[in-house]
């Protein structure tokens, strides 16, 4: 869940229409029109990516009149399916996968079950990936993959491919490095146990 209190505002006079802000916005909140950037106030999460990268300092962050709440209610979707996606992605459903917004794996799985099929749509619904914008792209891609969705990389947009995990290491590589002190099987067993442990709420 994220409570958004800031909003990007474009200074039209200063904007030179370079389109950089449109390409770095994690929620597709900016569109170019007649070589000027326009912000969708219903989507902007106030993450400041655009503000930090505008070459002519044409973007300011202003306080929202009313905070915007971004949250997917996990109880509104099938809990078994949420668990299935998380398990396949090797996450505990209660695990925080975005520390900037404290978004948990189950909320992202719920967003996917409600139709989000790209990292940007997941960010729009949950607010994830609107802090540092770096750490949580891997868990998002793994959860999408677990749901059978492979989103195409949007042209020119920042996006990082999925990196291998301990489960992806080929058998011959494991065997080779097991001899020199690596513990892939043990690591895998421990991570499997963590992903299946449930913390009682309340
Ligand atoms: S980059 Fe961040 S601050 Fe700028 S419009 Fe998009 S969500 Fe809002
Ligand atoms: S980055 Fe700045 S100059 Fe470029 S389109 Fe966006 S607001 Fe305009």
Main traits of this protein?
202 residues, alpha+beta, 3 domains, Alpha-Beta Plaits, 8 helices
Describe the fold and architecture.
The two termini are 19 Å apart. This protein is an alpha+beta fold and 202 residues long. The protein is globular. It has 3 domains: 2-9 and 16-70, Alpha-Beta Plaits; 74-163, no CATH class; 166-202, no CATH class. It has a two-stranded antiparallel sheet with strand order 1-4. It is 34% helix and 17% strand. The structure holds iron/sulfur cluster (2 copies). Residues 10, 15-21, 37, 54, 56, 58-59 line the site of one iron/sulfur cluster.
Bound molecules: iron/sulfur cluster
Radius of gyration: 19 Å
Tally of helical segments: 8
| Spatial strand sequence of the major β-sheet | 1-4
Integer average pLDDT: 91
Structural class: alpha+beta
> What oligomeric state is this?
single chain
Q: Give the uncertain stretches in residue-range form.
A: none
Q: What's the helical proportion of residues?
A: 25-40%
The domain tally reads 3
Question: Secondary structure elements and their pairing?
Answer:
Layout: E1 2-10, H1 20-24, E2 30-33, E3 36-39, H2 49-53, E4 59-70, H3 79-88, E5 96-98, E6 103-104, H4 105-113, H5 119-126, H6 137-146, H7 171-178, H8 184-196
Helix pairs in contact: 3-4, 4-5, 4-6
Bound molecules: iron/sulfur cluster (2 copies).
One iron/sulfur cluster (SF4) is lined by residues 10, 15-21, 37, 54, 56, 58-59.
Quick summary:
This protein is α+β, with helices and mostly antiparallel strands.
């Amino acid at each position: 869940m994220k409570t958004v209190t800031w909003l990007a505002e474009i200074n039209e006079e200063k904007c030179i229409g370079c389109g950089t802000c449109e390409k770095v916005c994690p929620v597709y909140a900016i569109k170019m029109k007649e070589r000027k950037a326009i912000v969708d106030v219903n989507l902007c999460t106030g993450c400041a990516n655009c503000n930090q990268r505008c070459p002519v300092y044409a973007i300011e962050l202003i306080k929202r009149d009313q905070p915007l709440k971004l949250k997917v209610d996990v109880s509104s979707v099938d809990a078994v399916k949420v668990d299935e996606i998380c398990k396949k992605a090797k996450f505990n459903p209660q695990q925080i996968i975005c520390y900037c917004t404290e978004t948990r794996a189950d909320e992202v799985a719920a967003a996917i079950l409600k139709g989000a099929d790209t990292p940007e749509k997941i960010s729009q619904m949950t607010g994830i990936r609107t802090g540092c914008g770096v750490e949580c792209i891997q868990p998002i891609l793994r959860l999408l993959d677990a749901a059978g969705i492979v989103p195409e990389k949007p042209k020119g947009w920042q996006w990082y491919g999925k990196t291998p995990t301990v489960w992806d290491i080929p058998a011959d590589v494991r065997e080779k490095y097991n001899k020199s002190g690596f513990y892939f099987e043990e690591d895998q067993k421990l991570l499997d146990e963590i992903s299946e442990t449930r913390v009682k709420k309340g």
